[in-house]
Design goal:
By secondary structure, the protein is α+β, with helices and mostly antiparallel strands. The protein has three domains: about 120 residues, no CATH class; about 60 residues; about 90 residues, OB fold (Dihydrolipoamide Acetyltransferase, E2P). Helix content is about 45%, strand content about 30%. The protein is built from seven helices and ten strands. The strands form two sheets. It has a five-stranded antiparallel sheet. A five-stranded antiparallel sheet has the order 8-7-6-9-10. Helix 1 runs antiparallel to helix 5 and helix 3 packs across helix 5. The protein is globular and about 75 Å long. It starts with a helix and ends in a 5-residue tail after the last helix. About 15% of the residues are buried. Keywords: Membrane, Transmembrane, Transmembrane helix. It comes from Pedobacter kyungheensis. This is DUF3592 domain-containing protein.
């Protein structure tokens, strides 16, 4: 609960500096010193207008995909997995019921254990909606059939063999309406800005500091920044899922562990130099950077660390502990 409140706080905080703050700054400065649009180069102003439109279009396309289209993509991928997925049998290690999630079915958080695509045993945490709770299929100790994407390229990377998928029309409708409201707000702001600032001289009022340009630029910057930080801290999620579902488990010898000088939330980033032999008994040396909790620094003193590596590219590795902690998809 605390983590969710913290996330909401930072979301509102970042949103303030992306939209209200640039507007307050721009219009306060403009009211104190009215600019003379005739002094601006019309070609530069037109270029800035075009750039702002491109930024908004990029942003809105991303939102539409995330809010609407991704649901159809997931549905299509689930239907594909039902025919092309690689079957595996998974043992349920733990099952926790989530109360009042979806009407008409029970929802469980599961911890399951199964062999991946190269027969290395892995554990995974996921959620499942059970439309037939009276069959009691999802209880600790029981076994369930799953289907894994042979390429591990598209979400979901695996499904339960009994999965049935449908699109909630009301959810899609509300998401589409929300997107249309956002689109209308952006279009209305262009009209408002033109009517109140053009002074009969077209788009010459457009400047590098105008909210029409700054707001989408900041929102896109946030998207790339968060993706970059997440990639630096824990690697790309798709990369980790690929190694987890197609990687070979082994023990790597710890050659060295040293701090990089980078700290995230006062926790040091450690660079590990590891050595291991692949399934062909070829020796490999790799380096992995990882942010370590201060209470878990004992890992730097271990002689061997469990890892997974890709058979086709042994330089792509991940700590087994990190892979066990990722969840979802599905």
């Amino acid at each position: 609960m605390t983590g969710r409140i913290f996330s909401i706080f930072w979301m509102v905080f970042m949103l303030f500096f992306a939209i209200p703050f640039p507007m307050l700054l721009y219009y306060n400065i403009r009211s104190e010193s009215m600019p003379n649009p005739i002094e601006n180069d019309p070609l530069i102003s037109l270029a800035l207008v075009t750039l702002s439109i491109l930024l908004w279009v990029t942003l809105l396309i991303g939102y539409y995909y995330k809010w609407v289209l991704v649901n159809f993509a997931i549905k299509r991928n689930i239907e594909r997995l039902n025919t092309t997925g690689i079957p595996r049998e998974a043992k349920i290690l733990a099952a926790t019921k989530i109360p009042d999630t979806y009407p008409g079915c029970d929802t469980y958080n599961l911890k399951i254990q199964f062999k991946n695509l190269v027969d290395s045993e892995i554990t995974h945490q996921t959620a499942v909606n059970d439309a037939k709770p009276y069959e009691r299929r999802y209880e600790a100790g029981k076994r369930v059939s799953i289907l894994i994407d042979p390429e591990v390229k598209r979400i979901p990377y695996f499904i339960f063999a009994s999965t049935e998928v449908s699109i909630r029309k009301m959810t899609i409708l509300l998401a589409s309406l929300g997107w249309l409201v956002l689109l209308s707000a952006v279009a209305a702001y262009y009209i408002y800005a033109y009517q109140t600032e053009s002074e009969g001289m077209g788009w010459r009022f457009m400047s590098i500091g105008h909210p029409l340009l700054i707001c989408p630029a900041v929102l896109l910057f946030y998207r790339f920044l968060l993706a970059f930080i997440a990639g630096k801290l824990s690697g790309k999620p798709s990369e980790k899922f690929l190694i987890k579902f197609k990687g070979i488990a082994t023990e790597a010898k710890l050659l060295a562990a040293r701090q990089t000088g980078t700290y995230i939330n006062e926790q040091p980033m450690i660079e590990f130099e590891l050595e291991f032999r692949d399934n062909h008994y070829q020796k490999h040396q790799v380096s992995i950077k990882k942010v370590i909790d201060l209470l878990a620094l004992d890992i730097t003193k271990q002689e061997y660390i469990s890892i997974f590596y890709l058979k086709d590219n042994p330089q792509r590795v991940a700590f087994a502990q990190d892979l066990n902690e990722i969840n979802g998809e599905f």
